[in-house]
Amino acid sequence: MEIARFAVVSFFLVISFFSSGDCNLVLKVQHKFKGRERSLEAFKAHDIQRRGRFLSAIDLQLGGNGHPSESGLYFAKIGLGTPVQDYYVQVDTGSDILWVNCAGCTNCPKKSDLGIELSLYSPSSSSTSNRVTCNQDFCTSTYDGPIPGCTPELLCEYRVAYGDGSSTAGYFVRDHVVLDRVTGNFQTTSTNGSIVFGCGAQQSGQLGATSAALDGILGFGQANSSMISQLASSGKVKRVFAHCLDNINGGGIFAIGEVVQPKVRTTPLVPQQAHYNVFMKAIEVDNEVLNLPTDVFDTDLRKGTIIDSGTTLAYFPDVIYEPLISKIFARQSTLKLHTVEEQFTCFEYDGNVDDGFPTVTFHFEDSLSLTVYPHEYLFDIDSNKWCVGWQNSGAQSRDGKDMILLGDLVLQNRLVMYDLENQTIGWTEYNCSSSIKVRDEHSGAIYTVGSHDLSSASSLRVERISVLLLILLLTILHSFRN
Ligand SMILES: *[C@@H]1O[C@H](CO)[C@@H](O)[C@H](O)[C@H]1NC(C)=O
Ligand SMILES: *[C@@H]1O[C@H](CO)[C@@H](O)[C@H](O)[C@H]1NC(C)=O
Ligand SMILES: *[C@@H]1O[C@H](CO)[C@@H](O)[C@H](O)[C@H]1NC(C)=O
Ligand SMILES: *[C@@H]1O[C@H](CO)[C@@H](O)[C@H](O)[C@H]1NC(C)=O
Predict the structure, then answer these.
(1) What is the CATH number of the domain that holds 389?
(2) Both 246 and 385 in a single domain?
(3) Are 214 and 206 in contact (CB under 8 A)?
(4) Residue 481 domain-assigned?
(5) Mind listing the pLDDT tens digit for each residue in 213-249?
(6) Could you tell me the residue range of the domain that residue 289 belongs to?
């Protein structure tokens, strides 16, 4: 039983231009958000201009689940290149680029325990693939200016470091992405657009491991380099998307486009932040508001609460974590707590956790709240062994490691809608195995989009294979006995 390796923290730290030469240039992507107000205006003007153009709703097929002792992540299937090839990529609202493992890469996983077939993207096998050089607009705007030492034949390289210490490096290519456009109720037609994405040449840390290996990461951040921003700027989609991550049946719903049903209440995004940060106001446990220092939610100190689908659990600084945990166990003073894998607080409990533990409600700006039930923040690692999903992000630090970060633990089983045009995010408790209604901007029609579970088809295949192997093994053993 191993949990730790699955507690993915993909909240991205920094994207930098990496050069194989001596020129060691590291640019923090955060820098380019200093002129944010102006660029938002530009986005809006741009969006109004292209209204009436071809804006469609997209249905992305999801797989995976958020259980920390299973995959601990959600992934989507996308098509790239000509002829088109399918890739399975982790869905991550905490980072800004799409990258996939490329042919010839160093330390790329060759197989995956998730029951999916991995594929390497090969620029030379796709007739529509083009390398992006360091003098092209995409490169200079991603790095906020001309690249020192750039000559026209040099590639535009990148390196992304994620919060769990893993990193990926490679170069950018432009090619077709093939997605499912919503054209009717539970009906889609293949559509394509041209986007720039990373061709992964070198992986390190967890990204090279086989345990939860995927073909890459699909950053759904709001920077211009993300797939959604690129598709929006070419007039293909609106910068609005929603996910409903299903940890009961696996997979769920992921759609680009405006969701009209269910209706969600929204809260504003913290301005000038690279990712999806919201203003938390209070935390209520067992119907009592936690008594916390007044500056704990101050956005100067912590830049808000990060919403990140690429992280499995939820993280709080010491000042919140300690009182939260003691209030959660207040009714259970006889429980024996022990630590598993040096970071998880675990205990044995025979009853129904929803009867023995309190609900936790987070309150946000504009009266949006999020209630998390005991069966969601506690996860079982054995029939009566439970561990707490809330994690400690540490003491106050200058580098901002003591963040408040809400991952899949609290996002799943809810419809979460990100409206980048209006700079809001909202959610509501929802059955992620059911369906939602989205608006097709092109025709104005409203269509139903259902849930998908890519993993069920593949794990079924794995199960069948192991049953076959077992039968084979039993047959062999049997023949030996006789
Ligand atoms: C993003 O793109 C828009 C329009 O395509 C542009 O006006 C804006 O300056 C860009 N923003 C950044 C931060 O580069
Ligand atoms: C992309 O779309 C164009 C126009 O609809 C079509 O001709 C082409 O075959 C598509 N390419 C892929 C890879 O689907
Ligand atoms: C964004 O705000 C506008 C104006 O308030 C509203 O009409 C629109 O429906 C909003 N977008 C979404 C996706 O709710
Ligand atoms: C969720 O929706 C699915 C599909 O409509 C349905 O089969 C299931 O019973 C629903 N679950 C709950 C808890 O309502």
Answers:
(1) 2.40.70.10
(2) no
(3) no
(4) no
(5) 899 999 999 999 999 999 999 999 999 999 999 988 9
(6) 265-411
In this structure, are 208 and 308 located in the same domain? no
Q: Which ligand is nearest to the CA of 238?
A: 3
Is 92 labeled as catalytic in the residue annotation?
yes
Closest to 405 measured CA to CA, from 311, 340, 319, 479 = 311
Give percent of the chain above pLDDT 90: 57
Residue 16 pLDDT class (50, 70, 90 cuts):
low
Atom of ligand 3 nearest to the CA of 422: 1
Using a 6 Å cutoff on CB, does residue 32 contact ligand 1?
yes
SS3 151: coil
The number of distinct structural domains making up the chain is 2
For residue 192, the CA-to-ligand 2 centroid distance in Å is: 6
Task: Tell me the pLDDT tens digit for each residue of 121-149.
Answer: 999 999 999 999 999 999 999 888 888 88
Domain check: are 91 and 229 in the same one? yes
381 and 292 within one domain:
yes
Specify the residue with its C-alpha closest to ligand 2, atom 7: 192
Distances (CA, A) of 306 to 94, 273, 302, 406: 8, 10, 10, 6
pLDDT given at position 398 = 61
Torsion of CA 355, 358, 364, 370, to 10 degrees: -20
Nearest ligand to the CA of 274 is 1
Choose the residue to mutate in 240, 419, 427, 446 for probing ligand 3, maximizing ligand atoms within 8 Å of C-beta.
Answer: 419
Question: Cα(193) to centroid of ligand 1, in Å?
Answer: 19
Length of the chain: 482
Ligand 2 pocket residues where CB is under 6 Å: 82, 84, 176, 178, 190, 192
CB of residue 434 inside a 6 A radius of ligand 4 = yes
Closest ligand to residue 239's CA: 3
Regarding whether 359 and 311 lie in a shared domain, the answer is yes
Judge whether 428 lies within some domain.
Answer: no
Judge if 136 and 224 occupy the same domain: yes
- Residues in contact with 146: Cβ distance below 8 Å, sequence separation at least 6, in sequence order: 135, 140
